[in-house]
Automatic annotation (TrEMBL):
The keyword Nuclease does not apply. Residues 297-537 form the EAL domain. The lineage of its organism: Bacteria, Pseudomonadati, Pseudomonadota, Betaproteobacteria, Burkholderiales. Keywords: Membrane, Transmembrane, Transmembrane helix. Residues 154-288 form the GGDEF domain. This is EAL domain-containing protein. The keyword Hydrolase does not apply. It comes from the Bacteria. SMART domains: EAL (SM00052), GGDEF (SM00267). InterPro entries: Cyclic-di-GMP_PDE-like, EAL_dom, EAL_sf, GGDEF_dom, Nucleotide_cyclase, Rev_trsase/Diguanyl_cyclase. Pfam families: EAL, GGDEF. The chain crosses the membrane at residues 12-30, 36-59.
Amino acid sequence: MSIGSATRRAAGVVAGGFVLSALATLWLLRDGLTSAQLGGVLVVHALAALATCAALWAVQRWWLRGGEPLMAQLDAAGQGRIAERAQDGPVEWAPMSRTINVALTRLKAQLDDRDQRLGELHAEISVDPVTGLAARAQFMDKLSLVLHDPDASATGGLVLLRVDDLAGLNQRAGRERADELLKQVATLLRTRALRLDAAGGTVARLNGADFAVLVPRVDADALDSWTRDLAEALHGLKQRELTDRPRVGWLAASVVASGETVGAVMSRVDRGLQAGEGGDTAWQMVRATRSGPTVSLAQWRSLIDEALLTGRVELALAPIRAADGAVTQQLAQVQLENADGRRFGADEVLPAALRTARVADIDLRVAELALARIAGHAEHYEKVAIRISPRSAERPSFVTRLDEALAGVGALAQRLSVEFDIDGERHVVSVLGPLTAVLQRHGVRIGIRRVVAPPEDLALLRRLGVGYLRLGSSLSTGLAGDGSAGKRRLLQLMAELGASEQLRVLAAEAATSADAQLLRSVGIPCADASIEEVRST
């Protein structure tokens, strides 16, 4: 309701009130007053009504000249049109007009600051401040567009690069050197992407150590060749001593097709990247498979939580055999099963567990299953080796619960071996922390995985309780033929060195029966290609 309509309504009410008052007065005084006196009463009431209505009309004009413009100014401010207004109405409105102008000026400054911050935030989300590359949000938008291409036959290429131990380099060499490595990697990716796509595709830094390259249209052979060349170019950065790691990082590439989901594509390439980190090759070409429905990150969270709750977690055991066929230990890896009976191996589960912050739960469950297996086969003196992520070792709750589980089986805990993926024995102390003391107290053997060269400090390994080394795949495969004679001699020397220092050398699953025979012939036990699946009970 406007001030004008409100005033008119008030004037009507006032006039009606005076009429009723006059009528009531005339009726009450009809016998005591003369006609002239009654007429005077009516005139007085009429004049009072007119005076009141005139006052209301004056108030209306006063409001319309001063209040209405200010209300319009505030209404415009509510719609984002903020501006000061010169006071040209009654002087009584001047203080309020000045106050409103000051308030709106401050509000405009706050909105301008908000818009600036939003712009900066958008730039931060869209562009990585260190490298100048696209950030994760922009990259995911581009990937979504490629996957929603209306051309059903359209394919693109996705390459992920993970810089090796960026956080460690930052601590050891300083942030400046780490940033310089990131900038050089970004420049290399940006220039190399032009060789694959004239427009350069989309080159992004997804997070601290992860980079990505997306090309809308590319075939598998071209992507394969380009990724191989990129791996060699990254080795050039290593030669410039920008990093103190054995390699700058790992690469994984895959062709992506229209109609796939973002989660399926990222999960597939990320698994390839994890496989690369778990092996010894600098790059992996991941093939798109249709063997089963893809699992999104949200689905992985539910799958892992449900499997842990319902007990659908199993161990896949690979017997490690010596030359005489005796089983020296069982190498255990995790398996999950969903409600539909589909099974997921360690190469799928562990990367997903890392990304969903559930790797400590998985590692603890695997340790419990391994200890139960040992206790259930106590008379056979069975030994089981498990893998624990350094991420789990960082969690005090995991260390405490593992300590309790080990104490629960008493002396049988000595039959358990725990392996870690650690590059270089000197990092064992910093990575494992208090977990080392717990394992040593219970007599658990500690192993280091993915060893590709003789250890530099055997005395340090002995002090840390490391009992064995498990060879990386590059040393334990492709051993037949004259071209691998040098590798076989190296294996022989490592086995002899380990025996003299009470540090056993083992291998994982052999690629072929010939490789298995050669490994065992030099005194290095290994697993055959077949894996015995054991349901956790």
